[in-house]
Amino acid sequence: MRSLLFVPGVSQRKLEKAIGSQSDVLIADLEDSVSLDSKAEARRITAAFLQSARSRTNAQLYVRVNDLATGLTEDDLAVVMRARPDGIMLPKAEGGNDVARLAAALRVHEAENGIEDGRTRILPIITETALGVLNAASYRGSSDRLAGLTWGAEDLSAHIGALAARHEDGSYTPLFQLARNMTLLAAAAAGVPAIDTVFPNFSDTEAFARDCQLAVRDGFVARMAIHPVQVDTINTVFTPSDEEVEKARAVVEAFSAAGNAGVVNIGGRMYDRPHLALAERVLARAAEASSA
């Protein structure tokens, strides 16, 4: 996956429009974009959309449920799991125990709905509370369902009382740099993709493209979007370029030709095993992008 587009689960019109966005993942949202008195209606609309969209899009279909502390998560699952979503996004996750708890609930709903055990993936947002940031290392081994790790700045701002997450030049303040970096490290430790957070100012396309390029530089392999206009930029930036693929293929082929060598020489530059691992990741990302 490269692009993950949030769509309000209460809006049938926006859900239908999202099908044409070319996003790799569509996330029907039952949380922040839905008022409390509209939750039941959003569940109904989302479940109907999941059932009808399956034959009309190649995108993976996820649902962001309400967080575990609200007491609404089970109500969300009881409705949407009948429609067999590909994954559940868990907001305000505060550690691997929350993922394990959701995994146990999903196993019950899969059994009740005739869904293959373990089919439904989990994507937690791990930095929306202070405790979530501090527990970032706990996701390793939490569940085989783990599809990746992502982070959020807006809810963390509200939780700790920060007035802004970014400096005037667009760079993150130290606290939010920490949350972002913890997500990268936690994802690497857990062996899952690191997915970058949303960029709220969707009208500033140039700033968004630069921000995506920085994300790729630092190790993120995908990004969430809040508007369809952001999807093409994400897909372009997070797809390895022809030059990157050519370079990665040269590294892999050099090591293959050298047998069990620890270091190879390509054009007068030495490449060791970490370079090989990085090259293999680039080729895997390129292959996944070409099949999207």
TrEMBL record:
<keyword id="KW-0479">Metal-binding</keyword>
<dbReference type="GO" id="GO:0016829">
    <property type="term" value="F:lyase activity"/>
</dbReference>
<dbReference type="GO" id="GO:0006107">
    <property type="term" value="P:oxaloacetate metabolic process"/>
</dbReference>
<feature type="binding site">
    <location>
        <position position="155"/>
    </location>
    <ligand>
        <name>Mg(2+)</name>
    </ligand>
</feature>
<dbReference type="InterPro" id="IPR015813">
    <property type="entry name" value="Pyrv/PenolPyrv_kinase-like_dom"/>
</dbReference>
<keyword id="KW-0456">Lyase</keyword>
<feature type="domain" description="HpcH/HpaI aldolase/citrate lyase">
    <location>
        <begin position="2"/>
        <end position="228"/>
    </location>
</feature>
<protein>
    <submittedName>
        <fullName>Citrate lyase subunit beta / citryl-CoA lyase</fullName>
    </submittedName>
</protein>
<feature type="binding site">
    <location>
        <position position="64"/>
    </location>
    <ligand>
        <name>substrate</name>
    </ligand>
</feature>
<feature type="binding site">
    <location>
        <position position="128"/>
    </location>
    <ligand>
        <name>substrate</name>
    </ligand>
</feature>
<keyword id="KW-0460">Magnesium</keyword>
<dbReference type="InterPro" id="IPR005000">
    <property type="entry name" value="Aldolase/citrate-lyase_domain"/>
</dbReference>
<feature type="binding site">
    <location>
        <position position="128"/>
    </location>
    <ligand>
        <name>Mg(2+)</name>
    </ligand>
</feature>
<dbReference type="Pfam" id="PF03328">
    <property type="entry name" value="HpcH_HpaI"/>
</dbReference>
<comment type="similarity">
    <text>Belongs to the HpcH/HpaI aldolase family.</text>
</comment>
<dbReference type="InterPro" id="IPR040442">
    <property type="entry name" value="Pyrv_kinase-like_dom_sf"/>
</dbReference>
<dbReference type="GO" id="GO:0000287">
    <property type="term" value="F:magnesium ion binding"/>
</dbReference>
<dbReference type="InterPro" id="IPR011206">
    <property type="entry name" value="Citrate_lyase_beta/mcl1/mcl2"/>
</dbReference>
